[in-house]
Every structure is written in structure tokens, then in C-alpha cells.
Amino acid sequence: SRDRGAVVCVVTRLTYGDLSEYSEKIAWYLQNEKGVGKGDLVGVMLQRDTYLLPSIYGILKAGAAYVPIDPNFPPERIRKILGDSNMKVVFTRAEFTKDLEMTEVSFVDIEASIGDILSTNSEAFQMDVKGTDLAYVIYTSGTTGNPKGVMIEHHSVVNRISWMQKAYPIQSEDVLLQKTPIVFDVSVWELFWWSWR
Fold it and tell me: Could you tell me the pTM of the whole model?
């Protein structure tokens, strides 16, 4: 049901309907206001908060792939990730960007922008996403000490979640704790498994 709770963050609660609406509007914003298209990379530099899941789901609905960035990374590491990925948009909060000063990247303060994003009546373009399209890119430390992006396609995510559901089936009454930082791939099943049913 659209009215059932989907996301709880401290005292904030989003229903499945809220999550669907938020992510759809974020997808529209990316497509129409930021020129994001299929296969583009969009950064998510957020901690666990109300807008984390809507941002990630919105990026995927826009046909793009998300790149998780830990706001606690040193600024030089963040700059290297941003430069290497060539992304143009990053969902974040203003306090996480004060030391970055990168004019080629559009840092979107999601909390400050969400009101305008949600005010549109338009719907995002429906993307024809294939299993071989990118879902996310996670940067590792790399053997050289420089961040190195690992590209994961949609079919890999679906395969993992499908196996998880067969091995440890969850029901609609179950609750998943999103405890793993999103810069680690273990976070993926926490971000998506609960929405499988």
C-alpha cells in the first residue's frame, strides 16, 4: 500500500507513496533542470537522512547511475572522485561542500532544494534501462592510493537481491536497518532488498 511506511529516519517518516513521488520528481529535476541522461553519473554525498533513498532512487529512475561519496572523506579524495567520474551533479548538503570549490560540478543541497523539486507537476521520462546499464560506481582506495571506480550493472544488483530473497526471504512486516555506509557495496542490499516485494 502507498500509505505504508517505507523509510524512517529519526522522527521523519516517508510512505511508499512519498518515496515514489520524491524519487520521480528528483528524476524529472535531473533530466530537465540538470541535463542528466541515460548512463550519466550522479554523485550522492549524503549521510543517512530522509533524502538519501529518494535521491538514489531518483537517480536510477532518471536512467543514470549513482556514485556514493562519503562527506567525511578528505577534500582531495573527493575532488579526485569527482574529477575521475566526470560527474556534473552531486546531491549533498551545503556543509559538506565548503572546502571543495569546484565550479565544474553542480552541488545540489537536497534539503534546500527539495521544496522546489517537489513543486513540479511533471513526470520524468521513462527510461528503457537494460540489465547491462550501469546502476552505480563505487570508488575503492585502489592499489596506487588513488580512488578507482568499480562499475556495477543493474543485472548484478538484481542477481544479488534475488539470491538474498531466496536464501533469506523477507516479508512485508520485516524491517531492514540501513547501517552500512553507502560507499561500501554491502550497502546495496540494504538500500534495495526491502523494496523487492
Answer: 0.91
Neighbour tally for 99: CB within 10 Å: 10
23: how many CB neighbours lie within 10 A of its CB?
21
CB 132 within 8 A of CB 155: yes
Query: How far apart are alpha carbons 62 and 124 in whole angstroms?
Result: 7
**Is 147:126 a contact under the CB 8 Å cutoff?**
no
Beta pairing, strands 65-68 & 89-92: unpaired
Q: What pLDDT, in 10s, does the model give residues 85-96?
A: 999 899 999 999
